[in-house]
Amino acid sequence: MTYGISAEWSKKMLALDEHVTPGAGVLAARPHVDPDAVSLRAEETRLVFGHFINVARRQRRMTIEKLADDADIEVGELLSIEQDPHYEPDLRTVWGLSNALDLPQPKLMELAGLAVPKEGHWLEEVTRYAARSAPIKDVTPGEQAFHDAVVAALTMKVK
User: Fold this and answer.
1) More confident residue, 77 or 154
2) Would 98 disulfide with which of 10, 60, 92, 105, CB 3.0-4.6 Å?
């Protein structure tokens, strides 16, 4: 079977949506996230994604370097995923992580905020779990001093 799609037709279709980036193969079909369609903010999903990748890596007793190598991504990028809620991984990165961790790519893309979830309920459950599983650490003396100084400034009475 032969498809009769001309270059002109393709250019016309691309012009209909300014957000489309032409490409080929599975990774070219990046679903754009409609902010109104997702109940969680992108930053929130990336924070949960980073926390999940961190826990999944540690549960498998993998170093950051080992997971980055297995996923064929840079160590710095994996550090950004785990530590920076503003960092948005690309499709290739999520694909590599899904292969390295043996996880389904479509759901991992939803968790990373790169695809609109078909069922948003599971993301809310994952977010609640991530919030409950965050370790509680004692405040360091330096953090306590900072806190006390801010509280003092906030509660200072103006004359």
Assistant:
1) 77
2) 105
